[in-house]
Amino acid sequence: MLSCQNVSIERGNRPILDSVNFTANTGELIVLLGENGAGKSTLLSAICNDISYTGQITIDNQPLQSFDELTLATKRAVLLQNNQVNFSFSATELIAMGRYPYHESIHEQKQVVNQLITQLTLEKLAVRDVTALSGGEFQRVQFARCLAQLDAHKANTKGKLMLLDEPTSALDMHHQHLTLSKAKSFAQQGNIVIAVLHDLNLTSLYADRVLLLNNGQLCHDGTPQEVLQSSVLQPIYKTHMQITTHPTYQIPMIFSEPQLGVTHA
Amino acid sequence: MSTLASPFVESKRHIQWYWVSCALLGLLAWLSLSSGAIGWDWKMPIVWLLPDSMTGDVQPLHLTVMTQIRLPRLLLAILVGSVLASAGAVTQALCRNPLADPSLMGITGGAAVGAVSVIALSAQISFIHEAMVAPAAFVGALAVTGLIYRISNHHGQIQITTLLLAGVAINAMAMAVIGLFSFFADDSSLRLMTYWQMGSLGGASWSGMQYGAPLIVLSVYALFVRRKKINALMLGEREARHLGVNVKQLKAEIVFIVALGVGSAVALSGMIGFVGLLVPHIARLLVGPDLRRMLPLSILLGCVALLLADWVSRLIVAPSELPIGIVTALFGSPFFIYQLLKQKRGQHA
């Protein structure tokens, strides 16, 4: 269980996050939504303990700061945006780096990594040089590294926290669904996944819960049906949209409209 | 599509490169012991190791030359080569860029400034004497490493252009300071300073190494035991932290150890450039970037590279010798230009 109480962050005198409160329960895939600069990545950084904040963040009722680094590393993994590696590791080696916090033999490590490669259909990338991968391929390999860090190859792994900052931003449709369904099933087996997404329809398809940030404030917290409404979204995204229901699943589908003739002020 | 031969650590194909470098190291050590100003005699190392095998063939004087001049020199080459190569490999991981190198970043320059200031001032000021050369080199190296890292670190990301430009500026400053000291120096200090600037193993002696050698061994060992942690650093600072590495502490340790190792190396042999750039690059080509394989090979190949450069520097103008720094720079700088071109191409691809 992850809980954020009155988490605030200021940079200069400008508030980036303004008393954010929420509790994430195991089994939930939570999507963080909000326009650019709303504070989504900052909130993730706070939960990763990368930046200082006021308020309190606890994992399993234990304050974040009280964790020893290696223990924390076996409990939570983070996929960051815009990361680049300048050394010619193979994709397999990069995924294996996720096993850093564990003391295990090369043989065990190899088994974990190979299982994840199969689960995420990364076979073709396994021996490729990561500096030569495309953005999307690299993102998939980094996602696999995060899964390796949390023992996600096992179906009985529970109580872990996975933070994903735009995990699908460079992926094609097939791999967007592959990544999010893996994240979803990982959450369902008793873990927490918090993902920043920009695609509202993917959010609707996969999220158990949506947190909507606006100017550093958590303005909505609810199911996709509750949050993905035009009365909520239009003021924030300043885009005309129509919201209908998915023909097969009873979930909202968002259709935005072209803004022709709108002059940029 | 570039594929990598083997994705896992224990792969047998990598082991052969350790054997190849060990064999090269042995061969060059033997060449280095048996050749020199008094002539070439391939039997000398054998006579020294097995005194009963060929007695009478080798003059006792030559044997003394070998144990008192060539042997310390061999040891110094091995020490300096291993520390420069491992410092290079680790600095590259710290900066997350294969173009980083202690000499290009100005660390060796800073160490040389420290050493040269002590030499110059020891003639004038009574309480400064030559035993302070090594500590001064260390302080110079530490100051530059810390400064460079601070200048080029932008929110946890190292800007390689800033890093290299800062290196250029610091090297220019180091040259200016050394130039200033040499302008006012007397003849004997001048010779010493020139020697520091161009690098040489010629000053090797058993007594000279008694402080520097343990420090070098210690710093190579200290880097070696941290290779798994430093590996994670190649992913990025935040990523390494998320994997459970205490990044802040590790960075401070690396800066200190690299400064200690490079400072000691410069105090013993002057500025020898490009070894830290070239050797890790070759090691990475052979066994990949994982420091668990690459660092041991870099250490071995660093010894090989320095022994080879030293042998070449003695061979070209025998019975005199070239400063070894000239040899490494002659080989290293074209390679650096090639690397720059390659990175430029990579950015456009």
From TrEMBL, chain A:
This protein's UniProt keywords: ATP-binding, Nucleotide-binding, Translocase, Transport
Xref: InterPro entries: AAA+_ATPase, ABC_transporter-like_ATP-bd, ABC_transporter-like_CS, P-loop_NTPase
GO molecular function: ATP binding; ATP hydrolysis activity
Gene3D superfamilies: P-loop containing nucleotide triphosphate hydrolases
Domain ABC transporter: 2-240
Keyword Oxidoreductase: no
NCBIfam families named among the record's database cross-references: PRK13548.1
PANTHER family named in the record: HEMIN IMPORT ATP-BINDING PROTEIN HMUV
Function (record text): Part of the ABC transporter complex HmuTUV involved in hemin import. Responsible for energy coupling to the transport system.
Name of the protein: ABC transporter domain-containing protein
Species for this entry: Pseudoalteromonas byunsanensis
Taxonomic lineage from the root: Bacteria, Pseudomonadati, Pseudomonadota, Gammaproteobacteria, Alteromonadales
TrEMBL record, chain B:
Record membrane topology: Multi-pass membrane protein
TM segment ranges: 74-95, 107-127, 133-151, 163-184, 204-224, 254-282, 294-312, 324-341
Gene Ontology biological-process annotations: siderophore-iron import into cell
Domain of life: Bacteria
Pfam families linked: FecCD
Recorded GO MF terms: transmembrane transporter activity
InterPro entries membership: ABC_BtuC-like, ABC_transptr_permease_BtuC
Keywords: Cell membrane, Membrane, Transmembrane, Transmembrane helix, Transport
GO cellular-component term (any): plasma membrane
Transmembrane in keyword set: yes
Keyword Cell membrane attached: yes
Main location: membrane
Location(s) in or outside the cell: Cell membrane
PANTHER family in the record: ABC TRANSPORTER PERMEASE PROTEIN MJ0876-RELATED (PTHR30472:SF25), FERRIC ENTEROBACTIN TRANSPORT SYSTEM PERMEASE PROTEIN (PTHR30472)
Family: Belongs to the binding-protein-dependent transport system permease family. FecCD subfamily.
Protein name: Iron ABC transporter
Naturally occurring in which organism (per UniProt): Pseudoalteromonas byunsanensis
Lineage: Bacteria, Pseudomonadati, Pseudomonadota, Gammaproteobacteria, Alteromonadales
